[in-house]
Write a structure and sequence with these properties.
With about 150 residues, the chain is α+β, with helices and mostly antiparallel strands. About 20% of the residues lie in helices and about 45% in strands. It has four helices and nine strands. The strands form three sheets. Strands 1, 2, 3, 4 and 5 form a five-stranded antiparallel beta sheet that branches. Strands 6-7 form a two-stranded antiparallel ribbon. A two-stranded antiparallel sheet has the order 8-9. The longest helix has 9 residues.
């Protein structure tokens, strides 16, 4: 998640869990260093936190401000597609209900619905999940491998 935020610009993650509120801001310095601010850690969640985040019991809201000039965003749907295809977010998208809101001047103008990564059509060449291992500095590391080739046109 943090790599996606840093890659797109800056942002913050706010969570309410078990009555505790936490927030972490992620941003880059003028020199490009990765920085964060955790506001002193967790605190008791207040009624206004639940209301502002739209969370009834427990949940997380992530805000990303896209300001990276290398990320072309011509339309809101481009942002939704960029998030759905982001390698760092794929696992989270399968475990969480992620929606994107387009907010302009404090008002919601669009809502994405659930964002999911959709694997493109492909032919499996090896696997799926073929097991193997490799040895590095006398320690064995297992892995599972699936190798696919995209289907371009039928």
């Amino acid at each position: 998640m943090k790599q996606a935020i840093y890659g797109l610009g800056h942002g913050w993650i706010e969570t309410i869990h078990a009555g505790q509120f936490s927030r972490i801001d992620l941003f880059r310095s003028e020199n490009g260093d990765y920085l964060y601010e955790d506001w002193g850690g967790d605190r008791l969640a207040e009624v206004i936190d639940y209301s502002r985040l739209g969370i009834a019991d427990s949940g997380t809201q992530v805000t990303i401000v896209i300001e990276n000039t290398h990320v072309p965003i011509s339309h809101y749907r481009s942002v939704v597609l960029a998030v759905a295809n982001n390698i760092y977010l794929r696992d989270m998208l399968t475990r969480r209900n992620v929606e994107l809101l387009h907010v302009q001047q404090g008002k919601e103008t669009e809502r994405s619905g659930q964002v999911l990564f959709e694997e493109p059509p492909a032919t499996v060449l090896l696997g799926p999940d073929q097991t193997g291992s490799f040895v590095y500095q006398q320690e064995e590391y297992p892995f599972a491998l699936t190798l696919s080739a995209p289907r371009m046109w039928n």
